Amino acid sequence: MRGGAQAHLIECDDGYAYVVKFANNPQHRRILPNELLASELLKFLQISAPETMVVAIDEDFIRNSPEARMQLGTKTIAPEPGWHFGSRFPGDPDRVATYDFLPDQLVGKLHNLRDFLGALVFDKWTGNSDGRQAIFFRAQISQWLPLAEENPRRMGFVAMMIDHGYILNGPHWELINSHVQGLYSRRMVYNSVRSLDDFQPWLDRVVHFPEHVIDEALRHIPSDWLRGDEDAFDRVLDALYKRRKRVSDLIADARLAKVNPFANWPA
Ligand SMILES: Nc1ncnc2c1ncn2[C@@H]1O[C@H](COP(=O)(O)OP(=O)(O)OP(=O)(O)O)[C@@H](O)[C@H]1O
Ligand SMILES: [Mg+2]
């Protein structure tokens, strides 16, 4: 796959295909706990994102899959045997096309366009230092957005939020602030925003976020990903928990950016 982590599309033995980021990826090992934590937070906040999985890779797979390699300058690096991070491809990759970008006309017709407002709440909270990224695909809406209560046969475009390696400022595990932080490059997704109320119910879900969900996420992270890093991760999780009450200010402050991202909510 494209991207700095040099992820690979791998069919796993649960029958699904996953975009896998290896523990020894060229970005950093800390990208993996970030991804898994993000996945559990997004699930609780009810923001569309792929199912995720911890993927086991053994010596046999590495030996028999010479195409599963990363490139570091002139060096070719094999994934190490052990646990890796997988983001589930939405369906059979031979039959479902996913896109990193949609033309604005189709973005406007997305069935879960409002999830980009939830994603901004999430990105401001978790200090995602990458721009917002999503994949788009055409599918039966009821299958992917059960809460939409759509006619079961209706087809349309759906967005799912991906690439959370750089929450907590990636390998730095700190919470950064900037007016433009976490924004999606296609600002039209924010056209409906007129006040902080438009970021509900996600703002309230963050303010009242139960600490046990964070603790549970921590328990699901393979210990190999955190070895020697446990205290640093605990510290940034504490800071994350404390930041919940600041998220509405962080969102309102985005209007102070050189170009206000919210065309219909003046500063
Ligand atoms: N669950 C998924 N289903 C389908 N495609 C995916 C999925 N997750 C990631 N991809 C694809 O793989 C690409 C790389 O994934 P991602 O952006 O998470 O990796 P990255 O290496 O961190 O990228 P970046 O360089 O932007 O930080 C994405 O641009 C997207 O096209
Ligand atoms: Mg990316």
Topology overview:
Blueprint: E1 8-11, E2 17-21, H1 31-45, E3 52-57, H2 59-64, E4 70-72, E5 75-77, E6 82-88, H3 104-108, H4 115-126, E7 133-140, H5 141-144, E8 155-162, H6 202-207, H7 211-220, H8 223-226, H9 230-242, H10 247-253
Antiparallel strand pairs: 1-2, 2-6, 3-6, 4-5, 7-8
What do these coordinates show?
This protein has one domain (8-256). It starts with 7 loop residues before the first strand and ends in a 14-residue tail after the last helix. The strands form 3 sheets. It has a 4-stranded antiparallel beta sheet. A two-stranded antiparallel sheet has the order 4-5. A two-stranded antiparallel ribbon has the order 7-8. Helix 1 packs across helix 4 (115-126), helix 1 packs across helix 7 and helix 4 crosses helix 10. With 267 residues, the protein is of the alpha+beta class. It is 31% helix and 16% strand. The protein has helices spanning 31-45, 59-64, 104-108, 115-126, 141-144, 202-207, 211-220, 223-226, 230-242, 247-253, and strands at residues 8-11, 17-21, 52-57, 70-72, 75-77, 82-88, 133-140, 155-162. Bound molecules: adenosine-5'-triphosphate (ATP) and magnesium ion. Magnesium ion (MG) binds at residues 3, 133, 163. Adenosine-5'-triphosphate is lined by residues 1-5, 7, 19, 50, 87-90, 98, 100, 130, 133, 135, 162-163, 165.
